[in-house]
Design a protein that fits this description.
Elements (H helix, E strand, L loop, with lengths): L1 H10 L8 E2 L24 E2 L2 H13 L2 E2 H7 L4 H13 L3 E5 L11 E5 L1 H9 L20 H14 L2 H4 L3 E7 L5 H8 L10 E2 L5 E2 L3 E7 L4 E10 L15 H13 L5 H6 L7 E6 L2 H10 L9 E5 H7 L7 E2 L20 H12 L1
Parallel strand pairs: 10-11, 11-12
Antiparallel strand pairs: 1-2, 3-5, 4-5, 6-9, 7-8, 9-10, 12-13
Length: 357
């Protein structure tokens, strides 16, 4: 939502918008003289409009996406998004790849990312920094695709909390986005960029997968969150080769809290903070149960909230899907507190896509 507003703001008034993109053919009906599988006429340049740039900007911001994610995040009809992505891929601006399946069987889902040609176009439009590297935007520079896709879903759900609860304002800043600092500032009327690299006492630094906030404007309260995507690859307490354990990560957050360095975000968010929560989103229910079981001996642990991808997809990020402190014997809670309730807009939108498709 916010990123769409940012992109529209950046693109408004740019003199070159609507001009022909040199060497990029427009979508046409299939013809005998076109290459097999191509939907573009090679003899004419493709017309790139503002909506195309918005679409490219959303994909760049999320790094890699499924078609379901793109349709919801970019607020496009699924079938229309499919067609236009095909056109942009034929023009060399988007890359489509097969998503790897665990079994290796069945029809593979397509993944969408921005091609180097699309990166160049977004730089020309001043959506991306001129100083960045292509690999900071393209799929080639993204080491953990499934990790990013799960983070995308958390973000997509998060940015629609205010649709369900108008009194709430949200921010979600993933460290993997090539435009988070620019985007967050412009989309919030000149607000300060949210730092995604955390520095604690003694020069200790660490990077959550995302920094997020929820502000209740009626009650004047803001809650700070750090999001950690867990794909089951990090050891819990036995150090691996060049890997941080879950326990070490939690200990860093504990020291960060004790030093009250989280208050650095008060000036950024223009609020008063009493602490923060760390949200672990796992890729499987068995992994969330494993983390919860091993958190028993950790104190304090109430700031750690755990859920899994299936619960997120079914109920939404604001539903009562979270195990506070990993205590699965207690009723699940909502990060929205008393504001919880209602039908998650992302779940409804994805369900609608499946019914239409």
């Amino acid at each position: 939502m916010a990123m769409l507003g940012l992109l529209k703001g950046i693109l408004t008034g740019e003199g070159w918008l609507g001009e022909r993109w040199p060497g990029r053919p427009p979508p046409q009906e299939k013809r005998a003289d076109t290459c097999q599988g191509c939907l573009v006429d090679k003899e004419k340049p493709m017309r790139i409009d503002r909506r195309d740039l918005e679409l490219l900007g959303v994909i760049a911001d999320y790094r890699v996406m499924t078609f379901k994610q793109l349709a919801v995040a970019a607020e496009r009809d699924s079938k229309v998004a499919h067609r236009r992505v095909g056109d942009l891929a034929g023009a060399g601006l988007i890359v489509q790849t097969d998503r790897k399946t665990r079994s290796g069987r069945g029809r593979r889902e397509k993944l969408i990312s921005v091609a180097p040609g699309g990166v160049a176009l977004l730089r020309d439009a001043k959506v991306l920094s001129q100083d960045g590297l292509d690999e900071d935007v393209t799929l080639a520079g993204l080491p953990h695709v499934e990790h990013q896709l799960l983070l995308n879903w958390v973000r997509i759900h998060w940015l629609r909390i205010d649709q369900l609860h108008p009194a709430l304002r949200v921010r979600f800043v993933p460290h993997s986005s090539p435009m988070v600092h620019l985007g967050d500032a412009r989309a919030n009327g000149g607000a300060k960029p949210v730092p995604v690299f955390i520095r604690s006492e003694g020069g200790e630094t660490f990077t959550p997968d995302a920094v997020a906030t929820i502000t209740d404007v009626e009650r004047g309260k803001t809650v700070l969150f750090f999001v950690e995507i867990d794909m089951g690859t990090e050891p819990f307490d036995t150090p691996g080769k060049s890997r941080t354990t879950i326990v070490q990560k939690i200990q860093k957050y504990q020291r960060y809290f004790q030093a009250e360095r989280y208050r650095d975000y008060e000036s950024v968010c223009d609020c008063s903070l009493r602490g923060f929560r760390v949200l672990f989103v796992t890729n499987a229910k068995t992994r969330s149960a494993f983390l919860s079981q091993h958190l028993v001996d950790i104190r304090p642990r109430e700031f750690i909230w755990i859920t899994d991808e299936a619960q997120l997809s079914k109920h939404g990020v604001g539903a009562s899907i979270w195990a506070r402190g990993g205590q699965q014997g207690r009723p699940s809670e909502s990060i929205l507190g008393s504001r919880a309730g209602g039908v998650d807009p992302v779940t409804a939108a994805v369900t609608s896509q499946l019914q239409d498709g």
